[in-house]
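thread: overnight batch results

M.L. [08:02]
morning all. the overnight job finished for the chain we discussed friday. pasting input first so we're all looking at the same thing
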Amino acid sequence: MKTDLFDSWLAMEEPTLTALAADVPALAGISWGPDALPVLEAAALELLPPPDAELDTDAEEAARVLWQRLLRGIGRCYTEALGAVWVCAPLLQPTGGSRLVPVLDVPGLPVWIEVGELLDRALVERTGTVLADAYELAGQG
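M.L. [08:03]
and the structure it wrote out:
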């Protein structure tokens, strides 16, 4: 993700969160903070296919869009409640090299939070507590 693309991505936050609220009606009346995380994780577990699911092109695109919206919602919980900011950082690839991805820089934490990794972990573990547990750890930083 290049700087200009990252800036465009940042600018789409409000429309993305509005679309997320339409996707997840259970968010109505909940502020962006720790209380929203279990709702977001439950929505991810209910609405996103398992990581090993075979999907047609349309279903795959719909899942990708929802995944991006959930990523933004999770990030908003951190930015609103902990004062985190989105930054564009290099993510090392297992096959070598790196790519730039949006991550959260949380005041007091020595490492960035890669929200996509948290969301992926929530989908694999399927406990319903991954996002809240990670937030609690970050809040203690």
